[in-house]
Amino acid sequence: MKRILALLLTVALIASLGVSSAFAADDGFVDGKFAETRHITVEVFNRNNDGGTDPTNNVWSEYIQKEMLDRYNVEVEFVSVGRWTEGEDIANLLADGKAPDVSYTYAYNTVISYANMVDANGNPGVVDLAPYLEEYKDQLGNLLTLLGSEDNLYYDKDPETGAVWMIEGVRADTSRITTFIRKDWLDTLGLPLPTTEEEFYNALVAFRDNAETLLGADADKMIPYTISTDIGWRADLLSVSKVPSDVDDVTLFVYGYDDRHLLYPGYKEGIRVLNKWYNEGLIWKDFGLYNDSTVEDDNMKAGYVGAFMHNWDYPFRNGDDCINANLKRNVGEDAMFVPIDCFQNDAGVTLKFMGAAVGSDRKIFLPSTNTEPLASLLYINFISSVEAITYLQTGLEGTNHILHDDGAYEILPATGEWVMNSGNNIDYTMTCNGLYLGEATGATTALSYPGIPAEIVIQANEYGKNNGRYVQHFNVGTIESETEVGTSLTSLRDELLTKAVTASVADFDSVYDSYMADYMNAGGQDIIDERIEKLADVYGIDFEQ
Protein backbone atom coordinates (compact mmCIF):
# COMPACT_ATOMS: atom_id res chain seq x y z
CA MET A 1 0.00 0.00 0.00
CA LYS A 2 2.83 2.42 0.87
CA ARG A 3 4.43 1.83 -2.49
CA ILE A 4 1.15 2.44 -4.36
CA LEU A 5 0.55 5.67 -2.46
CA ALA A 6 4.11 6.77 -3.22
CA LEU A 7 3.60 6.16 -6.91
CA LEU A 8 0.30 8.05 -6.91
CA LEU A 9 1.98 10.96 -5.16
CA THR A 10 4.60 11.02 -7.87
CA VAL A 11 1.98 11.14 -10.60
CA ALA A 12 0.16 13.97 -8.85
CA LEU A 13 3.36 15.91 -8.32
CA ILE A 14 4.52 15.56 -11.91
CA ALA A 15 1.12 16.69 -13.14
CA SER A 16 1.15 19.70 -10.81
CA LEU A 17 4.58 20.73 -12.00
CA GLY A 18 3.49 20.49 -15.59
CA VAL A 19 6.73 18.75 -16.55
CA SER A 20 6.68 17.82 -20.20
CA SER A 21 8.50 14.89 -21.73
CA ALA A 22 8.58 16.65 -25.11
CA PHE A 23 12.14 16.99 -26.33
CA ALA A 24 13.61 20.41 -27.04
CA ALA A 25 17.26 21.17 -27.75
CA ASP A 26 18.94 23.59 -25.33
CA ASP A 27 19.66 26.80 -27.26
CA GLY A 28 21.50 28.27 -24.23
CA PHE A 29 24.44 25.93 -24.83
CA VAL A 30 26.96 27.76 -27.01
CA ASP A 31 30.42 26.56 -28.06
CA GLY A 32 30.47 23.82 -25.45
CA LYS A 33 29.36 25.95 -22.50
CA PHE A 34 26.19 27.43 -21.09
CA ALA A 35 25.84 31.15 -21.55
CA GLU A 36 24.09 31.44 -18.20
CA THR A 37 24.93 29.39 -15.12
CA ARG A 38 22.83 26.26 -14.72
CA HIS A 39 22.23 24.38 -11.47
CA ILE A 40 21.81 20.64 -10.98
CA THR A 41 21.57 18.33 -7.99
CA VAL A 42 23.48 15.04 -7.96
CA GLU A 43 23.07 11.98 -5.78
CA VAL A 44 25.95 10.63 -3.72
CA PHE A 45 25.82 7.70 -1.32
CA ASN A 46 26.23 8.35 2.39
CA ARG A 47 27.91 5.38 4.06
CA ASN A 48 28.16 6.98 7.52
CA ASN A 49 31.78 5.88 7.75
CA ASP A 50 33.65 6.27 11.01
CA GLY A 51 36.37 8.79 10.27
CA GLY A 52 34.80 9.64 6.93
CA THR A 53 33.72 13.00 5.58
CA ASP A 54 30.47 14.67 4.61
CA PRO A 55 29.88 13.20 1.13
CA THR A 56 28.20 16.43 -0.01
CA ASN A 57 31.05 18.70 1.09
CA ASN A 58 34.64 17.50 0.94
CA VAL A 59 37.71 17.75 -1.28
CA TRP A 60 36.25 15.32 -3.82
CA SER A 61 32.91 17.09 -4.15
CA GLU A 62 34.73 20.44 -4.39
CA TYR A 63 36.90 19.13 -7.23
CA ILE A 64 33.86 18.06 -9.21
CA GLN A 65 32.01 21.31 -8.52
CA LYS A 66 34.95 23.43 -9.64
CA GLU A 67 35.51 21.43 -12.81
CA MET A 68 31.85 21.49 -13.82
CA LEU A 69 31.61 25.24 -13.25
CA ASP A 70 34.82 25.97 -15.17
CA ARG A 71 34.06 23.64 -18.07
CA TYR A 72 30.34 24.05 -18.55
CA ASN A 73 29.16 26.85 -16.25
CA VAL A 74 27.14 24.32 -14.28
CA GLU A 75 26.73 24.52 -10.52
CA VAL A 76 26.57 21.11 -8.83
CA GLU A 77 24.86 20.50 -5.51
CA PHE A 78 25.25 17.04 -3.97
CA VAL A 79 22.40 15.26 -2.20
CA SER A 80 23.25 12.32 0.06
CA VAL A 81 21.26 9.08 -0.03
CA GLY A 82 21.86 6.28 2.46
CA ARG A 83 23.96 3.55 0.87
CA TRP A 84 22.39 0.66 2.76
CA THR A 85 18.84 1.93 2.33
CA GLU A 86 19.30 3.40 -1.12
CA GLY A 87 16.51 1.46 -2.81
CA GLU A 88 13.91 2.67 -0.36
CA ASP A 89 15.42 6.15 -0.05
CA ILE A 90 15.51 6.90 -3.76
CA ALA A 91 11.94 5.59 -4.14
CA ASN A 92 10.80 7.96 -1.40
CA LEU A 93 12.63 10.88 -2.99
CA LEU A 94 10.98 10.10 -6.32
CA ALA A 95 7.58 9.89 -4.66
CA ASP A 96 8.13 13.28 -3.00
CA GLY A 97 9.41 14.86 -6.21
CA LYS A 98 12.77 15.48 -4.56
CA ALA A 99 15.02 13.00 -6.33
CA PRO A 100 18.33 14.58 -7.43
CA ASP A 101 18.54 15.66 -11.07
CA VAL A 102 21.19 13.00 -11.59
CA SER A 103 20.28 9.91 -9.60
CA TYR A 104 21.60 6.38 -9.43
CA THR A 105 20.49 3.13 -7.86
CA TYR A 106 21.24 -0.56 -8.02
CA ALA A 107 17.48 -1.15 -8.17
CA TYR A 108 16.58 -1.49 -11.86
CA ASN A 109 12.94 -2.09 -11.00
CA THR A 110 12.67 1.20 -9.13
CA VAL A 111 13.61 3.12 -12.26
CA ILE A 112 11.24 1.13 -14.45
CA SER A 113 8.39 1.44 -11.96
CA TYR A 114 8.55 5.21 -12.05
CA ALA A 115 9.11 5.28 -15.80
CA ASN A 116 5.82 3.41 -16.12
CA MET A 117 3.91 5.91 -13.98
CA VAL A 118 2.37 8.38 -16.42
CA ASP A 119 0.66 11.61 -15.39
CA ALA A 120 -2.49 13.16 -16.86
CA ASN A 121 -0.42 14.78 -19.61
CA GLY A 122 1.15 11.49 -20.65
CA ASN A 123 4.53 12.22 -19.05
CA PRO A 124 6.43 9.37 -17.36
CA GLY A 125 8.09 9.71 -13.96
CA VAL A 126 11.57 9.31 -15.44
CA VAL A 127 13.10 11.15 -18.38
CA ASP A 128 13.35 9.18 -21.62
CA LEU A 129 17.00 9.76 -22.49
CA ALA A 130 16.78 8.48 -26.07
CA PRO A 131 16.26 11.86 -27.82
CA TYR A 132 18.87 13.57 -25.64
CA LEU A 133 21.46 10.88 -26.26
CA GLU A 134 20.88 11.24 -29.98
CA GLU A 135 20.93 15.06 -30.00
CA TYR A 136 23.99 15.42 -27.75
CA LYS A 137 25.97 12.34 -28.70
CA ASP A 138 28.89 14.52 -29.83
CA GLN A 139 29.11 15.90 -26.28
CA LEU A 140 29.30 12.44 -24.70
CA GLY A 141 32.63 11.17 -25.96
CA ASN A 142 33.99 10.29 -22.51
CA LEU A 143 30.90 8.29 -21.64
CA LEU A 144 30.97 6.39 -24.93
CA THR A 145 34.66 5.58 -24.45
CA LEU A 146 34.05 4.30 -20.94
CA LEU A 147 31.05 2.18 -21.95
CA GLY A 148 33.00 0.75 -24.84
CA SER A 149 30.35 0.96 -27.54
CA GLU A 150 27.17 2.70 -28.61
CA ASP A 151 25.35 -0.59 -28.01
CA ASN A 152 26.25 -0.33 -24.34
CA LEU A 153 25.00 3.25 -24.24
CA TYR A 154 21.64 1.87 -25.38
CA TYR A 155 21.94 -1.29 -23.27
CA ASP A 156 18.43 -0.93 -21.85
CA LYS A 157 16.72 0.52 -24.91
CA ASP A 158 13.20 -0.83 -25.14
CA PRO A 159 12.96 -2.91 -28.35
CA GLU A 160 9.35 -1.81 -28.90
CA THR A 161 9.20 1.84 -27.84
CA GLY A 162 12.84 2.86 -28.24
CA ALA A 163 12.78 4.47 -24.77
CA VAL A 164 15.99 4.65 -22.74
CA TRP A 165 15.21 5.18 -19.06
CA MET A 166 18.71 4.76 -17.67
CA ILE A 167 22.41 4.53 -18.42
CA GLU A 168 24.16 1.49 -17.03
CA GLY A 169 27.39 2.02 -15.13
CA VAL A 170 30.47 -0.04 -15.95
CA ARG A 171 32.21 -2.57 -13.76
CA ALA A 172 35.81 -1.87 -14.66
CA ASP A 173 36.79 -4.90 -12.60
CA THR A 174 34.33 -7.79 -12.84
CA SER A 175 35.85 -9.71 -9.94
CA ARG A 176 33.02 -10.36 -7.48
CA ILE A 177 33.25 -12.84 -4.63
CA THR A 178 36.14 -14.78 -3.12
CA THR A 179 36.41 -17.31 -0.30
CA PHE A 180 38.82 -16.50 2.54
CA ILE A 181 40.29 -18.72 5.24
CA ARG A 182 42.63 -18.28 8.22
CA LYS A 183 45.97 -19.59 6.98
CA ASP A 184 47.54 -19.35 10.42
CA TRP A 185 44.88 -21.72 11.76
CA LEU A 186 45.49 -24.13 8.91
CA ASP A 187 49.23 -24.00 9.59
CA THR A 188 48.71 -24.63 13.30
CA LEU A 189 46.63 -27.71 12.53
CA GLY A 190 48.90 -28.91 9.72
CA LEU A 191 46.23 -28.52 7.04
CA PRO A 192 46.74 -27.39 3.43
CA LEU A 193 44.79 -24.62 1.71
CA PRO A 194 41.51 -26.28 0.60
CA THR A 195 41.10 -26.90 -3.11
CA THR A 196 37.76 -28.75 -2.99
CA GLU A 197 34.49 -28.43 -1.08
CA GLU A 198 35.36 -31.57 0.91
CA GLU A 199 38.70 -30.14 1.99
CA PHE A 200 37.01 -26.88 2.95
CA TYR A 201 34.45 -28.74 5.04
CA ASN A 202 37.20 -30.76 6.72
CA ALA A 203 38.98 -27.54 7.62
CA LEU A 204 35.83 -26.12 9.22
CA VAL A 205 35.39 -29.30 11.24
CA ALA A 206 39.01 -29.10 12.35
CA PHE A 207 38.53 -25.49 13.45
CA ARG A 208 35.46 -26.46 15.48
CA ASP A 209 37.09 -29.49 17.06
CA ASN A 210 40.30 -27.65 17.94
CA ALA A 211 38.78 -24.47 19.33
CA GLU A 212 40.83 -24.60 22.52
CA THR A 213 44.06 -24.99 20.57
CA LEU A 214 43.22 -22.10 18.28
CA LEU A 215 41.47 -19.72 20.70
CA GLY A 216 42.49 -20.83 24.19
CA ALA A 217 40.27 -19.18 26.80
CA ASP A 218 38.03 -17.83 24.02
CA ALA A 219 37.25 -21.30 22.66
CA ASP A 220 33.53 -20.74 23.22
CA LYS A 221 33.67 -17.86 20.72
CA MET A 222 34.82 -20.11 17.87
CA ILE A 223 33.05 -19.47 14.53
CA PRO A 224 34.40 -21.84 11.88
CA TYR A 225 32.41 -20.13 9.09
CA THR A 226 30.58 -16.81 9.23
CA ILE A 227 27.76 -15.55 7.06
CA SER A 228 25.04 -12.88 7.06
CA THR A 229 21.34 -12.78 6.22
CA ASP A 230 22.39 -11.96 2.65
CA ILE A 231 23.12 -15.64 2.14
CA GLY A 232 22.56 -15.31 -1.59
CA TRP A 233 25.68 -13.15 -1.88
CA ARG A 234 27.68 -14.59 0.97
CA ALA A 235 27.42 -18.22 -0.15
CA ASP A 236 27.18 -17.68 -3.89
CA LEU A 237 30.24 -19.69 -4.88
CA LEU A 238 29.00 -22.74 -2.98
CA SER A 239 25.44 -22.43 -4.27
CA VAL A 240 26.28 -21.99 -7.95
CA SER A 241 28.72 -24.88 -7.79
CA LYS A 242 25.60 -27.06 -7.76
CA VAL A 243 24.28 -25.59 -11.03
CA PRO A 244 24.73 -28.13 -13.88
CA SER A 245 27.67 -27.18 -16.08
CA ASP A 246 25.67 -27.77 -19.27
CA VAL A 247 22.91 -25.25 -18.45
CA ASP A 248 22.30 -22.89 -21.39
CA ASP A 249 22.03 -19.10 -21.44
CA VAL A 250 18.33 -19.14 -22.28
CA THR A 251 17.57 -21.13 -19.14
CA LEU A 252 19.72 -18.79 -17.09
CA PHE A 253 17.84 -15.81 -18.49
CA VAL A 254 14.43 -17.30 -17.80
CA TYR A 255 15.38 -18.05 -14.19
CA GLY A 256 17.75 -15.11 -13.81
CA TYR A 257 15.55 -12.43 -12.27
CA ASP A 258 17.22 -12.68 -8.88
CA ASP A 259 20.79 -11.37 -8.89
CA ARG A 260 21.71 -13.92 -6.20
CA HIS A 261 20.87 -16.76 -8.64
CA LEU A 262 18.13 -18.13 -6.38
CA LEU A 263 16.15 -19.78 -9.20
CA TYR A 264 19.07 -21.32 -11.06
CA PRO A 265 18.72 -25.10 -11.39
CA GLY A 266 20.54 -26.94 -8.61
CA TYR A 267 20.83 -23.88 -6.37
CA LYS A 268 18.83 -25.49 -3.55
CA GLU A 269 21.51 -28.14 -3.08
CA GLY A 270 24.06 -25.50 -2.16
CA ILE A 271 21.73 -24.23 0.55
CA ARG A 272 21.28 -27.81 1.73
CA VAL A 273 25.02 -27.97 2.34
CA LEU A 274 24.84 -24.78 4.43
CA ASN A 275 21.95 -26.26 6.40
CA LYS A 276 24.07 -29.31 7.19
CA TRP A 277 26.99 -27.13 8.26
CA TYR A 278 24.76 -24.97 10.44
CA ASN A 279 23.35 -27.99 12.24
CA GLU A 280 26.87 -29.30 12.82
CA GLY A 281 27.89 -26.07 14.54
CA LEU A 282 30.14 -24.88 11.72
CA ILE A 283 28.28 -21.63 10.93
CA TRP A 284 27.88 -18.60 13.19
CA LYS A 285 24.70 -19.47 15.06
CA ASP A 286 23.64 -15.84 15.56
CA PHE A 287 23.97 -14.59 11.98
CA GLY A 288 20.22 -14.11 11.59
CA LEU A 289 20.03 -11.62 14.47
CA TYR A 290 21.89 -8.76 12.82
CA ASN A 291 21.00 -6.55 9.85
CA ASP A 292 24.40 -4.89 9.44
CA SER A 293 27.98 -6.09 9.34
CA THR A 294 29.32 -4.51 12.54
CA VAL A 295 29.14 -7.52 14.86
CA GLU A 296 30.29 -9.95 12.20
CA ASP A 297 33.24 -7.77 11.24
CA ASP A 298 34.19 -7.39 14.91
CA ASN A 299 34.22 -11.19 15.24
CA MET A 300 36.58 -11.41 12.28
CA LYS A 301 38.85 -8.67 13.59
CA ALA A 302 38.99 -10.23 17.04
CA GLY A 303 40.18 -13.51 15.56
CA TYR A 304 37.17 -15.73 16.25
CA VAL A 305 36.34 -16.59 12.61
CA GLY A 306 37.93 -19.28 10.48
CA ALA A 307 36.49 -18.64 7.02
CA PHE A 308 33.97 -16.60 5.06
CA MET A 309 32.92 -15.67 1.55
CA HIS A 310 32.53 -12.03 0.53
CA ASN A 311 33.54 -9.29 -1.94
CA TRP A 312 36.93 -10.19 -3.34
CA ASP A 313 38.76 -7.48 -1.35
CA TYR A 314 36.68 -7.49 1.82
CA PRO A 315 39.42 -8.36 4.37
CA PHE A 316 41.69 -5.68 2.88
CA ARG A 317 39.30 -2.72 2.86
CA ASN A 318 39.50 0.36 5.10
CA GLY A 319 43.25 0.68 5.38
CA ASP A 320 44.59 0.34 8.90
CA ASP A 321 41.14 -0.67 10.14
CA CYS A 322 40.77 -3.55 7.69
CA ILE A 323 40.09 -7.05 8.95
CA ASN A 324 43.57 -8.40 8.27
CA ALA A 325 45.29 -5.40 9.88
CA ASN A 326 43.17 -5.85 13.00
CA LEU A 327 43.94 -9.56 13.07
CA LYS A 328 47.65 -8.84 13.12
CA ARG A 329 47.25 -6.40 15.99
CA ASN A 330 44.85 -8.54 17.99
CA VAL A 331 46.21 -12.02 17.34
CA GLY A 332 49.72 -11.93 15.92
CA GLU A 333 51.88 -11.18 12.92
CA ASP A 334 50.98 -14.42 11.12
CA ALA A 335 47.22 -14.09 11.56
CA MET A 336 45.48 -13.37 8.27
CA PHE A 337 42.74 -14.39 5.89
CA VAL A 338 44.01 -15.62 2.53
CA PRO A 339 42.00 -16.33 -0.64
CA ILE A 340 41.14 -19.82 -1.86
CA ASP A 341 39.16 -21.15 -4.83
CA CYS A 342 37.67 -24.50 -3.94
CA PHE A 343 34.00 -24.90 -4.93
CA GLN A 344 33.97 -27.05 -8.06
CA ASN A 345 30.92 -27.87 -10.17
CA ASP A 346 30.08 -31.20 -11.79
CA ALA A 347 32.73 -30.54 -14.42
CA GLY A 348 35.41 -29.92 -11.81
CA VAL A 349 35.48 -26.18 -12.52
CA THR A 350 35.33 -23.43 -9.89
CA LEU A 351 32.67 -21.60 -11.88
CA LYS A 352 31.50 -18.07 -11.15
CA PHE A 353 28.50 -16.42 -12.74
CA MET A 354 29.75 -12.95 -13.46
CA GLY A 355 27.88 -9.73 -13.74
CA ALA A 356 28.59 -8.30 -17.19
CA ALA A 357 30.88 -5.27 -17.40
CA VAL A 358 27.77 -3.32 -18.42
CA GLY A 359 24.36 -4.06 -16.94
CA SER A 360 25.30 -5.24 -13.47
CA ASP A 361 26.15 -2.02 -11.69
CA ARG A 362 24.34 1.23 -10.87
CA LYS A 363 21.59 2.56 -13.06
CA ILE A 364 21.89 6.29 -13.72
CA PHE A 365 18.70 8.16 -14.52
CA LEU A 366 17.07 11.57 -14.58
CA PRO A 367 13.76 11.95 -12.70
CA SER A 368 11.01 13.80 -14.54
CA THR A 369 11.47 16.77 -12.20
CA ASN A 370 14.82 17.37 -13.90
CA THR A 371 14.71 20.62 -15.91
CA GLU A 372 18.38 20.48 -16.95
CA PRO A 373 18.82 17.30 -19.01
CA LEU A 374 21.79 18.59 -21.01
CA ALA A 375 23.65 19.88 -17.95
CA SER A 376 22.96 16.52 -16.33
CA LEU A 377 24.33 14.58 -19.28
CA LEU A 378 27.40 16.80 -19.33
CA TYR A 379 27.93 15.92 -15.68
CA ILE A 380 27.67 12.21 -16.48
CA ASN A 381 30.11 12.69 -19.34
CA PHE A 382 32.63 14.58 -17.21
CA ILE A 383 32.50 12.04 -14.41
CA SER A 384 33.26 9.37 -17.05
CA SER A 385 36.43 11.05 -18.29
CA VAL A 386 39.85 9.48 -17.74
CA GLU A 387 40.96 12.69 -16.05
CA ALA A 388 38.11 12.75 -13.51
CA ILE A 389 38.21 9.02 -12.78
CA THR A 390 41.99 9.02 -12.33
CA TYR A 391 41.92 11.95 -9.92
CA LEU A 392 38.97 10.65 -7.92
CA GLN A 393 40.49 7.17 -7.67
CA THR A 394 44.06 8.17 -6.86
CA GLY A 395 43.77 11.62 -5.28
CA LEU A 396 46.67 13.88 -4.40
CA GLU A 397 50.21 12.66 -4.98
CA GLY A 398 52.10 12.38 -1.71
CA THR A 399 48.86 12.33 0.28
CA ASN A 400 46.71 9.67 -1.38
CA HIS A 401 49.31 7.94 -3.51
CA ILE A 402 52.92 7.56 -4.59
CA LEU A 403 53.39 7.38 -8.35
CA HIS A 404 55.92 4.71 -9.32
CA ASP A 405 58.16 4.78 -12.38
CA ASP A 406 56.10 2.05 -14.06
CA GLY A 407 52.97 4.20 -13.81
CA ALA A 408 51.46 2.29 -10.88
CA TYR A 409 49.81 4.23 -8.08
CA GLU A 410 50.72 3.07 -4.60
CA ILE A 411 47.69 4.04 -2.55
CA LEU A 412 48.47 5.58 0.84
CA PRO A 413 46.30 5.41 3.99
CA ALA A 414 44.83 8.92 3.77
CA THR A 415 43.42 10.72 6.77
CA GLY A 416 41.34 13.82 7.45
CA GLU A 417 39.82 15.58 4.50
CA TRP A 418 41.50 13.27 1.98
CA VAL A 419 39.73 10.12 3.16
CA MET A 420 37.66 8.37 0.50
CA ASN A 421 34.28 7.32 1.88
CA SER A 422 34.06 4.47 -0.63
CA GLY A 423 36.62 2.19 -2.25
CA ASN A 424 38.14 3.94 -5.27
CA ASN A 425 35.64 6.75 -4.63
CA ILE A 426 32.98 4.81 -6.55
CA ASP A 427 30.23 6.92 -4.98
CA TYR A 428 31.45 9.83 -7.13
CA THR A 429 32.56 7.82 -10.17
CA MET A 430 28.96 6.74 -10.65
CA THR A 431 29.53 5.38 -14.14
CA CYS A 432 32.62 3.38 -13.14
CA ASN A 433 32.94 0.75 -10.43
CA GLY A 434 36.51 -0.47 -10.01
CA LEU A 435 39.95 0.83 -10.87
CA TYR A 436 40.10 2.33 -14.35
CA LEU A 437 43.71 3.36 -14.88
CA GLY A 438 44.59 1.81 -18.21
CA GLU A 439 47.80 -0.20 -18.26
CA ALA A 440 48.53 0.80 -14.68
CA THR A 441 45.38 -0.85 -13.33
CA GLY A 442 46.83 -4.27 -12.50
CA ALA A 443 49.94 -2.97 -10.77
CA THR A 444 47.90 -0.35 -8.95
CA THR A 445 45.44 -2.95 -7.67
CA ALA A 446 48.30 -4.84 -6.07
CA LEU A 447 49.42 -1.66 -4.29
CA SER A 448 45.99 -0.35 -3.36
CA TYR A 449 45.69 -1.97 0.05
CA PRO A 450 48.35 -0.61 2.40
CA GLY A 451 49.91 -3.25 4.61
CA ILE A 452 48.53 -6.18 2.61
CA PRO A 453 51.04 -8.29 0.63
CA ALA A 454 50.58 -7.59 -3.08
CA GLU A 455 50.50 -11.29 -3.96
CA ILE A 456 47.49 -11.86 -1.71
CA VAL A 457 45.59 -8.97 -3.27
CA ILE A 458 46.35 -10.18 -6.78
CA GLN A 459 45.34 -13.75 -5.93
CA ALA A 460 42.06 -12.66 -4.33
CA ASN A 461 41.20 -10.56 -7.37
CA GLU A 462 42.00 -13.39 -9.77
CA TYR A 463 40.02 -15.95 -7.78
CA GLY A 464 37.03 -13.59 -7.83
CA LYS A 465 36.74 -13.98 -11.59
CA ASN A 466 38.51 -17.28 -12.24
CA ASN A 467 36.45 -19.48 -14.57
CA GLY A 468 33.88 -16.71 -14.85
CA ARG A 469 30.84 -17.18 -17.07
CA TYR A 470 29.04 -14.21 -18.58
CA VAL A 471 25.43 -14.96 -19.36
CA GLN A 472 24.11 -13.61 -22.67
CA HIS A 473 22.15 -10.36 -22.48
CA PHE A 474 18.65 -10.71 -23.87
CA ASN A 475 17.16 -7.24 -24.33
CA VAL A 476 13.46 -7.96 -24.26
CA GLY A 477 12.36 -4.61 -22.88
CA THR A 478 10.58 -4.08 -19.59
CA ILE A 479 9.37 -7.16 -17.73
CA GLU A 480 6.25 -5.63 -16.20
CA SER A 481 5.87 -8.33 -13.55
CA GLU A 482 9.33 -7.46 -12.23
CA THR A 483 8.41 -3.83 -11.71
CA GLU A 484 5.31 -4.81 -9.75
CA VAL A 485 7.13 -6.67 -6.97
CA GLY A 486 9.54 -3.88 -5.95
CA THR A 487 11.87 -5.17 -3.24
CA SER A 488 9.32 -7.63 -1.82
CA LEU A 489 10.86 -10.65 -3.55
CA THR A 490 14.30 -9.66 -2.33
CA SER A 491 13.03 -9.68 1.25
CA LEU A 492 11.29 -12.99 0.68
CA ARG A 493 14.47 -14.47 -0.76
CA ASP A 494 16.56 -13.46 2.23
CA GLU A 495 13.95 -14.82 4.62
CA LEU A 496 13.68 -18.05 2.62
CA LEU A 497 17.42 -18.67 2.72
CA THR A 498 17.84 -17.73 6.36
CA LYS A 499 14.98 -19.98 7.47
CA ALA A 500 16.21 -22.82 5.28
CA VAL A 501 19.77 -22.68 6.56
CA THR A 502 18.69 -22.59 10.22
CA ALA A 503 16.02 -25.29 9.92
CA SER A 504 16.69 -28.77 11.25
CA VAL A 505 18.11 -31.14 8.68
CA ALA A 506 14.88 -33.13 8.76
CA ASP A 507 12.80 -30.02 8.06
CA PHE A 508 15.04 -28.50 5.40
CA ASP A 509 13.04 -29.58 2.35
CA SER A 510 9.68 -28.65 3.77
CA VAL A 511 10.90 -25.22 4.92
CA TYR A 512 12.71 -24.46 1.68
CA ASP A 513 9.86 -25.63 -0.54
CA SER A 514 7.20 -23.81 1.49
CA TYR A 515 9.04 -20.49 1.30
CA MET A 516 9.81 -21.06 -2.38
CA ALA A 517 6.10 -21.57 -3.03
CA ASP A 518 5.43 -18.24 -1.30
CA TYR A 519 8.12 -16.62 -3.43
CA MET A 520 6.59 -17.96 -6.62
CA ASN A 521 3.07 -16.96 -5.60
CA ALA A 522 4.27 -13.45 -4.70
CA GLY A 523 5.42 -12.82 -8.26
CA GLY A 524 8.29 -15.18 -9.00
CA GLN A 525 6.28 -17.39 -11.33
CA ASP A 526 4.79 -14.37 -13.11
CA ILE A 527 8.30 -13.14 -13.87
CA ILE A 528 9.36 -16.50 -15.26
CA ASP A 529 6.25 -16.70 -17.43
CA GLU A 530 6.70 -13.18 -18.78
CA ARG A 531 10.38 -13.75 -19.53
CA ILE A 532 9.43 -16.84 -21.53
CA GLU A 533 6.78 -14.83 -23.38
CA LYS A 534 9.16 -11.96 -24.16
CA LEU A 535 11.84 -14.35 -25.42
CA ALA A 536 9.34 -15.72 -27.89
CA ASP A 537 8.13 -12.26 -28.95
CA VAL A 538 11.55 -10.62 -29.42
CA TYR A 539 13.86 -13.51 -30.28
CA GLY A 540 11.48 -16.21 -31.48
CA ILE A 541 12.77 -18.57 -28.79
CA ASP A 542 10.32 -21.15 -27.48
CA PHE A 543 11.20 -22.26 -23.96
CA GLU A 544 9.48 -25.01 -22.02
CA GLN A 545 9.65 -25.09 -18.22
Distance between the termini: 32 Å
Sketch the major β-sheet: 4 strands, mixed
Number of helices: 23
DSSP strand count = 16
Shape: globular
Structural class per helix/strand content? alpha/beta
Radius of gyration in whole Å, from Cα?
24 Å
- Kindly report the average pLDDT value: 93
Q: How much helical structure, as a percent, in the residues?
A: 40-55%
Approximate strand percentage: 5-15%
User: Main sheet: which strands, in order across?
Assistant: 5-12-6-15
Low-confidence stretches: 1-21
What would you say this structure looks like, in words?
The chain is of the alpha/beta class and 545 residues long. Helix content is 41%, strand content 13%. Strand 3 (38-46), helix 2 and strand 4 form a beta-alpha-beta unit. The radius of gyration is 24 Å and the shape is globular. The model is unreliable at 1-21 (pLDDT under 50).
Task: Record the SSE blueprint.
Elements: H1 2-17, E1 29-30, E2 33-34, E3 38-46, H2 59-72, E4 74-82, H3 86-95, E5 103-105, H4 108-115, H5 130-135, H6 141-147, H7 150-153, E6 167-171, E7 177-182, H8 183-189, H9 197-209, H10 211-215, E8 223-225, H11 231-234, H12 236-240, H13 249-254, H14 267-279, H15 294-302, E9 305-311, H16 323-330, E10 337-340, E11 352-354, E12 358-365, H17 373-383, H18 386-394, E13 401-403, E14 409-411, E15 432-433, H19 441-446, H20 454-463, E16 468-470, H21 480-485, H22 488-502, H23 508-539
Parallel strand pairs: 3-4, 6-15, 8-9, 11-16
Antiparallel strand pairs: 1-2, 5-12, 6-12, 7-9, 7-10, 13-14
Helix pairs in contact: 1-3, 6-17, 14-22, 15-16, 22-23
